[in-house]
Amino acid sequence: MADAALRLKNLVEQLLAAPLPLRLRAWDGSEAGPPGAPALVVRNRRALRRLLWKPGELGLARAWVAGDLGIEGDLYTALDLLAGLIWERGDDARTLAQALRDPAFRAAVRGLAKLAGPFPPPPPPREEARKLRGHLHTRHSDRRAVSHHYDVGNDFYEIVLGPSMVYSCAYWDSPDGTLEDAQRDKLELVCRKLGLKPGQRLLDVGCGWGSMAIHAAREHGVSVVGITLSQEQAAYARKRVADEGLTDRVEIRVQDYRDVTDGPYDAISSIGMAEHVGSERYLEYARALLALLKPGGRLLNHQIGRRPQRDETTYSVDAFIDAYVFPDGELAPLGTTVTQLERAGFEVRDVESLREHYALTLRQWVTNLEEQWERAQRLTGPGRARVWRLYMAASALAFERNRIGVNQVLAVRTPEPGASGLPLRARTWN
């Protein structure tokens, strides 16, 4: 079969009703498609079987994770072309049900099935998260989901995140700046928005590897309780706290936010954690944090948000992200987040979008991973390393194309008779 690439290209274009902007390289060495474009490498016919059994994003993801598919050339360019072809076709894209009524589409499916060879469904790569039965976002399911994502190994995260070990959007002064400076500036921005002063108590919800807790205690003289559901994160954070000589001011706990009872706190930071809460639990989350704050206390909620859908009742979580990256994660529109915080009793005082900042951060994380690719694969396995490279590169493009954003929402437990305690001029953060 010396013409597999050309046959595959013609079938794919027939299925998509659009020209394929990438080159195709097939398992027989044949190539087809525009010269000079990045190449989608189909290493075996099993990749086609994955796509036939799971059409769409999940089939593509499984083939990528298993190594059945690859990209030759610039990864961002390839993903950008694929995004415009598959994920962002809007109202012009046919649903599968509509497409199956088209005789030409059905003929292309039959041709793809013939090209794919023997037809049993390949098992998913082992890195795929197994779903639990029952309700989402119980204490047990949240702990399991967090472990899937964060207990990959601290050595692996050191490669990706660099010395700062901050796993959230950095705050860049310039695209030419360093990741370390940008992450330091982000932590300082959060501290200033919270108005931290020596002697105050800070609760850091989803404390990760301890970077925010350490920065706040060392630079602003506060006492910090950091909570996480990840045992590996907690062990790493405690060692960092000890190495900094801050054990008298920083406590790291493995604890669910629903189980914190030692308030009140002067301030709460929640950085990149609320995405795990879920829409069903979000009001509960907001009320729990409000109850832990002193009157006049501030919450800084740093959270990824998606664009609103035409019909919010039909929104589903990204299949690849849900299966391989953040099981049970949910993204809400910014307006929904603000509304829920206000329903809980907060007064929302400031919203700042950092969308472009996250794109820059993700591109640097991808560079870090690629520079130590062989070591990363040894530490976590080839499949998981491929998951991370695809997820971070695709996410960078999603931020750049305004498909998703990230926002810092500053909210206050405003006391009676209504003085918030914030400065009269916005964003001086004193």
From TrEMBL:
Its EC number is 2.1.1.-. The lineage of its organism: Bacteria, Bacillati, Actinomycetota, Actinomycetes, Kitasatosporales. One of its GO terms (biological process) is methylation. This is Class I SAM-dependent methyltransferase. Belongs to the CFA/CMAS family. SUPFAM superfamilies: S-adenosyl-L-methionine-dependent methyltransferases. Keywords: Lipid metabolism, Methyltransferase, S-adenosyl-L-methionine, Transferase. One of its GO terms (molecular function) is methyltransferase activity. The keyword RNA-binding does not apply.
